[in-house]
């Protein structure tokens, strides 16, 4: 929370509120660029964040399955070798 300082804030609301309701960006004091450039940077930052989160969530969904398969293989292969060579 910012107290005692006046800051410029941009609130971006997505057209479809499926993932989030709004994104809040606090501008630096020395930001002297056009409104269009500010919105473009805000959109790029939000897209980069969402791409990172979605990629991370997809990877975590498959990770337990991969560990389960690796565990089964680490037990199954030595058992099969022992079974067929005895």
Task: Describe this structure as you would to a colleague.
By secondary structure, the chain is mainly α. 59% of the residues lie in helices and 9% in strands. It has one helix and two strands. It has one helix at residues 35-85; strands at 9-12, 23-26. It has a two-stranded antiparallel ribbon with strand order 1-2. The protein starts with 8 loop residues before the first strand and ends with a helix. The model has no long low-confidence stretch (mean pLDDT 78).
Provide key terms for this protein:
86 residues; two-stranded antiparallel sheet; mainly alpha; single chain
Mean pLDDT: 78
* Shape type: rod-shaped
The whole-angstrom Rg is 25 Å
Structural class: mainly alpha
Our measurement of the CA-to-CA distance between the termini, rounded to an integer number of angstroms, reads: 71 Å
The major β-sheet equals: 2 strands, antiparallel
Low-pLDDT windows of residues: none
Percent helix among the residues? Answer: 55-70%
